Amino acid sequence: MSSKVSALLKLLIASRGQNPLTKSVVFSQFRKMLIYLEEPLKAAGFKTLRLDGSMNANKRAQVIKEFGVTGQDVPTILLASLKASGTGINLTAASRVYLLEPWWNPGVEEQAMDRVHRIGQKEDVKIIRLIARNSIEERILELQEKKKKLAKEAFGRRTAKDRRRDIGVDDLLGLMSL
C-alpha cells in the first residue's frame, strides 16, 4: 500500500472516529486508483460507492442518489473521478473532500470541490489535499498558483498598486502556456 493511500486511510478512520456518519468524497484523476482504493477501504470497514466516467448518466444519478441517503449502514465514502464529478451534480451529503492528486488546471479541482461546498450544505466542509513531497505534484501546485495569479491580474479587479504594473503580452502568453 502506498504512503498516500495509508495517509488517506488514517484520515478517514480519524474522521469516522469523530463522527461515524460523516460522509467523504475522495477525488482522483485516475479510475484505476478509485478501483484500487475500494479494497483497503472495505477492509477498514467503510462502505463505498464509485462515480467515474465509465458510467452512463442513469448509473451516475443512481450513485449520487444513494450517496445522499443518511443514516446507519449506508455508504459514507464516494470515490469520484475528478473530471466525471466536476459539473452538474450535488454532493452536499459529504462534508469532507480528499484530493489525491493535483490537476494542472485549478478550475477543474474547484468545480469538483464546489459539488460538496454549495447551497444546501449544512456542515462545515473540510478539504484535504494529499501531496507527495519532492514530487511532480509540488510542481503542479506551483503551476496552479501561477495560473491563478496571472488570471487574477489579467481578468480580476486591480487595486491601485496592481495598476502600476500593466499586463503585457508576455503575461498572457505565460498564462496560456501553463
From TrEMBL:
One of its GO terms (biological process) is DNA repair. Signal peptide: none annotated. One of its GO terms (cellular component) is nucleus. Keywords: ATP-binding, Helicase, Hydrolase, Nucleotide-binding. This is Putative SWI/SNF-related matrix-associated actin-dependent regulator of chromatin subfamily A member 3-like 1. GO terms for molecular function: ATP binding; ATP-dependent activity, acting on DNA; helicase activity; hydrolase activity. Pfam families: Helicase_C. Residues 7-168 form the Helicase C-terminal domain.
